[in-house]
Amino acid sequence: MKKLSNKFYISKGKNKINGFEIFLLFMVGNVLGYCVEMVYGYFRLGFWESRQSLIYGPFGLAYGLGAVMLTAFLYKDSDSKWYKQFLKGFLIGTIGEYIFSFGEEAFFGHVSWDYSNQIFNLNGRVCLTYSIYWGILGLVWARWIFPGFKKIVAKIPLNAKKVIFWILFPIITLDIIISIIAVGRYNERRNNIPPQSAFEQYIDETYPDDRMNKVYANASQTEKNSTKKPDSYLKEVVRVAKKDAKNFKDYLKEKKYIENSHKTKKKISNFKNEKIRS
């Protein structure tokens, strides 16, 4: 059992990865992503605005998850050709960003970014410009960042790794749970739904709208939706999926792709009919 436990913290070989490295990458990515967003927001807006994903702590979950996804698909590619690293980063980052945006809307009822005004965007969740950024990051990540990170982590003593994990893991887990509950009540209050228990009343008093508005200052609410309770998550996933499908179809109609497709099919059909008659 001890050997099995130690495998979580130790991996031998250049193209190997362990659970502790993945977890630490997630945590470091969260913090660095938050810092990048804060600085970017300041230069764009001229003032500091919260870019937190969770109630407590400087965490940007999209970046933490992005770091994990990039690592999971690129940790064996440090010696691959540059264009393969770029393409992998491009695809992985784009897919991950879409999934996170979709999940944030389905489970939290708001979105932290919207690329609707960017060219070549998909439902406002991803766009070509940021996909290229993901590609560049994937290249840099596979070639320099992850190999360097791995060397640093290898120097941390085993017992220190265990202490780091068992301090940070409960903190981030509890923070995620609290944030989901608080955002759930936040959405319910915006839909004029009163607390149904003493616990929900406590949540309303501890995490009032003023506090939530400051924490999620950059988030924009989606159209009026259900209350984001655990028993409604599946319904929300289906609702958001249907909305995305409709938006994409409307986009195709706007660009006349569907119309042109119908015209092409009609021309082919007319050509076949004329051929039959002749």
Structure characterization notes:
This protein is mainly alpha-helical. Helix content is 69%, strand content 3%. The chain is built from 10 helices and 4 strands. It has helices at residues 2-7, 19-45, 61-74, 82-108, 128-154, 158-190, 198-206, 209-215, 233-254, 257-277; strands at 110-111, 121-122, 126-127, 220-221. The protein has a two-stranded antiparallel ribbon with strand order 1-4. The chain has a two-stranded antiparallel sheet with strand order 2-3. A hairpin with a 3-residue loop joins strand 2 and strand 3. The radius of gyration is 23 Å and the shape is globular. 29% of the residues are buried. Residues 223-227 have low confidence and may be disordered.
List strands and helices in order, with pairings.
Elements (H helix, E strand, L loop, with lengths): L1 H6 L11 H27 L15 H14 L7 H27 L1 E2 L9 E2 L3 E2 H27 L3 H33 L7 H9 L2 H7 L4 E2 L11 H22 L2 H21 L1
Antiparallel strand pairs: 1-4, 2-3
Helix pairs in contact: 2-3, 2-6, 3-4, 4-5, 4-9
Beta-strand residue fraction? under 5%
Low-confidence stretches: 223-227
Rounded mean pLDDT score: 84
- The class by helix and strand makeup works out as mainly alpha
Helix content: 55-70%
Overall outline: globular
Write the H/E string, N to C: HHHHEEEHHHHEHH
Number of strands: 4
Number of discrete helical segments: 10
Q: Main sheet, how many strands, which sense, barrel?
A: 2 strands, antiparallel
Report the end-to-end length measured between terminal Cα atoms: 80 Å
